[in-house]
Design goal:
Chain lengths: ~190, ~110
């Protein structure tokens, strides 16, 4: 398997890696596990990929803890057809997209992160929530898809008390040898 | 591989940080006892050499209450969608803030579970 076609964890190469994240896991362990996965070169800075995934996992972990949902959150990474595909499946009950400080379908380039809606949302949540996890994911990955699931894993409109969880799927193209290399950020 | 030139090696972290001037939300993405990187989605109005104050919210260690740190900007990094600041810790204003920051560094330097 060529390095551009595989992921690597614990010394093993694979096209697919699944992590089961205990919602009560020490978050440091989650960070370290993600850091230990070797991702092939992709079109964006890999640190940003990891951070966007971490931000979504953080949201899922919080939802599980609030709902006292003991099931693991499932994180899948796959290399397929020249793309890194990441999916995060949780059982946190989904959420009312109307409670976010912006419309999920909005043109992100026109979004004002300093808007009253964002500021109100952040203040209301004591700055423990920024309302930016999905925004970060959409800005980082080429493709973003979010569906709410019922108890049989069928997509459904979010309904309080009936929606079981959320499946977010993200993808970004892997980098071929002819494409320019982006410098990784360093402070 | 680049040689580590910093006084202390940085460790990956995940803590929310709010730039007090303007209430700009950001994230501390790595840190050490002597410095950290704070990543913002909006460009912070700061320059190299400036001292800025951020409120740190360490949601994963509830024993660390929100606290402030002062940082001297050493580097500005533009890497869309992020606007990051590489900074050194300016002197701590009081012992409580110093202890809170040390606790945060200790938390993320730990082996995890």
């Amino acid at each position: 398997m060529a390095p551009t076609e595989s992921l690597q964890m614990d010394g093993k190469q694979s096209r697919t890696i699944r992590l089961s994240v205990d919602p009560h896991a020490d978050f440091r362990a989650v960070i370290q596990k993600l850091e230990s996965i070797v991702i092939p070169p992709v079109k964006v800075n890999q640190e940003h990929i990891r951070f966007a995934v971490l931000e979504l996992l953080n949201n899922s972990i919080r939802a599980h803890r609030e709902k006292q949902e003991p099931r693991d959150i499932l994180l899948d990474l796959t290399i397929s057809d020249g793309k890194l595909v990441v999916s995060i499946r949780d059982f946190g009950g989904g959420f009312d997209t109307g409670s976010l400080p912006y419309d999920l379908d909005a043109d992100l380039s026109r979004l004002d992160l300093h808007s009253a809606e964002f500021e109100d949302y952040q203040r209301r949540n004591g700055f423990k929530r920024f309302g930016m996890g999905i925004y970060v994911a959409k800005k980082t990955f080429d493709e973003f898809r979010l569906v709410f699931l019922d108890e049989t894993d069928r997509p459904m409109r979010w309904t309080a008390g009936r929606t079981v969880g959320t499946l977010i799927t993200l993808s970004v193209g892997t980098r071929t040898g002819s494409e320019p290399v982006e410098a990784d950020g360093e402070s | 591989m680049k040689a580590e030139k910093r006084k202390d090696a940085r460790v990956p972290s995940y803590a929310k940080a709010v730039l007090v001037d303007g209430q700009v939300p950001g994230y501390i993405r790595d840190l050490s006892l002597s410095g950290c990187q704070v990543a913002f989605l909006q460009p912070p109005r700061v320059g190299v050499g400036d001292v800025l104050t951020v409120q740190v919210i360490a949601e994963h260690d509830p024993s660390i209450l929100p606290f402030h740190i002062r940082l001297r900007v050493r580097r500005l990094i533009e890497d869309p969608p992020w606007h990051s600041v590489g900074a050194q810790i300016e002197r701590h204003v009081d012992a409580a803030e110093e202890q809170a920051f040390e606790k945060l560094v200790s938390y993320y330097s730990g082996a995890g579970q």
